[in-house]
Amino acid sequence: MARVFNFCAGPAVMPEEALLEAQRQLFDFNGSGMSIMEMSHRGKEYDAVHTEAIANLRQLMAVPDEYSILLLQGGASGQFAMVPMNLLRPGETADFVNSGAWASKAIKEAKIVGAVNVIANTGKDIPTRLPAVADLKPTPGAAYLHITSNETIAGTQWKSFPKTGAPLIADMSSDILSRPFDVKDFGLFYAGAQKNLGPSGLAVVVIRKDLIERCPETVPMFLRYKTHAEENSLYNTPPTFGIYMLMLSTRWLLKMGGIAGIARQNEAKAAKIYAAIDGSGGYYRGTAVPEFRSNMNVTWRLPDEAREEKFIKEASAKGLKGLKGHRSVGGIRASIYNAFPPAGIDALVAIMKDFQAANG
Amino acid sequence: MARVFNFCAGPAVMPEEALLEAQRQLFDFNGSGMSIMEMSHRGKEYDAVHTEAIANLRQLMAVPDEYSILLLQGGASGQFAMVPMNLLRPGETADFVNSGAWASKAIKEAKIVGAVNVIANTGKDIPTRLPAVADLKPTPGAAYLHITSNETIAGTQWKSFPKTGAPLIADMSSDILSRPFDVKDFGLFYAGAQKNLGPSGLAVVVIRKDLIERCPETVPMFLRYKTHAEENSLYNTPPTFGIYMLMLSTRWLLKMGGIAGIARQNEAKAAKIYAAIDGSGGYYRGTAVPEFRSNMNVTWRLPDEAREEKFIKEASAKGLKGLKGHRSVGGIRASIYNAFPPAGIDALVAIMKDFQAANG
Lengths: 360, 360
Fold this sequence. Notes:
The structure is a homodimer of 360-residue chains. Chain A is α/β, with parallel strands linked by helices. Chain A folds into 2 domains: 5-12 and 258-359, Aspartate Aminotransferase, domain 1; 16-255, Type I PLP-dependent aspartate aminotransferase-like (Major domain) (Aspartate Aminotransferase, domain 2, 3-Layer(aba) Sandwich), CATH 3.40.640.10. Chain A contains 10 helices and 14 strands. The first copy, chain A, has a 7-stranded mixed sheet with strand order 2-10-9-8-5-3-4, with helices on both faces. The first copy, chain A, starts with a strand and ends with a helix. Chains A and B meet through helix 1, helix 3, helix 4 and helix 7 of A and helix 1, helix 3, helix 4 and helix 7 of B.
């Protein structure tokens, strides 16, 4: 069995050792005679998994006590609805930055719930970019400011975060756990699991405890952060297998040196591809403005679409899968999340050089 | 490795061959060089899984074309909110039958959304029971009537369903796919996956297409059935691994003879335990009124709590796990979903006889 290099944008590559451990235990978890999938979520075996997953997240991101960590369902799309339902009350305005496809979905959903002010919009700019933090003009008294820390499609990433009076809320689906940041700069951040955390079907939410109380009583119990915070994410049956994979992935990340360790590796991985782009004499052109280049999703173009297609096809034949860029920006996209192995970067860079030599 | 007999109420036992197949393929799905968890939900490998899962459900339950099958997140608790958000509009009333713990949660959630009329309430009756269908007095013009087809905690199960003018909606979490019924008797039914369908973190919703259009525009996109129906449950990243397990479980069920085949087995399994209860000369006493006895969750008492505790402990030592009844009804509960093997029933009945002989 040959393992490919998986550049998929999400669901995405997971740590090999997490997958192998899950495989070993799938039919009989820790000698219990049951799969982890078959166990009560109120039993002690699962409880240990649940507790470790949350503890690992708290340790990795140094989440202070005044924040709750919630393990929910519905991915980031669920949060696009839950955030305004819980935090945008009648008469209030929420600020949003539209930085691309994902921010724009969050905005669309929030507008159904309440008043939204899009204070910056780089969503359709090509080359893809983000607004300068200094240029943002928040609405006085806004309920919160929502940003998307990394735009998977555009390949852009906030390198520093806005500081405003209102709570800062970030969709970190595609770069959570990939680099250091101070949790205290945020009121809430969330991530669908399927890039850096585990399989799809799980969302991690980190919320400052005072914000938990904001939710109007017109919101169903299931959709209130308060409900899940009070029950340690066991109000209803959680996605136990997804949380088990989150536990294994975060355990792996701790062994990799935590956020500091993986951030160095992520920086080095991305830098190699960007160096190959910038060193190609214009043959490869980065899709994102350099100062906003993402370390998770590297996007670039070739001289024409025919060669882009050929590049993707040849790379795929060599076991480099999922390199096709999203149709809205075109070209190539290499999604290189935490679990993407450095050897795959070297393989990609070698192919880029060979391809240019043969098709220059 | 010894496989135990898993009587857990949910998450619950899954088909062994589904688990073994998932284990074989976990690190390399069909020779792709990736886990199913690592694959794009827009790719052809996953698409085949998604399509087969839905097709299997449609075949097993003979779901007519005028119904959509949706694969959502949030389990049944999510549906407690989504059903009224989508189908209970301002000025309308929804009828509910309170038959126990699960119905009561659905009612609590619906009351936050709109007007609710509880037209029958057997929720706290001991012995546990259901109202007679003939005694139900629906509200004229009600938006729908909601029932819980099987109460996991009480061990009661509707043997025939009410016929009313309003659409009938059922939470079938604990008995979906376990017995024949006519889909056309329902406007909508739903089930959390973790009893008869697959792992937790997935909900199956079957909805008559005209009802999809009812949702008010004040409801966020993510929480509208319409959104998911229009995108074949690919509006956002679905819980791909859970759907894969659903596909394997339903494939197994088709091999078992479909609903007709499994219903015969389920009937026979439950009948053996009820016969052991009824043949014990009053030593064991069924918790549910006989006419409402569930074939999925068999509940009974012993002469006193001390012997109940001893029974559970001795059964556990012999590899029969999860027999403790829910604290609200006490005693013993044997959850014997589709995938629970008949051999486990024989083992339980043998223990019941031995225990009575030793502790009579």
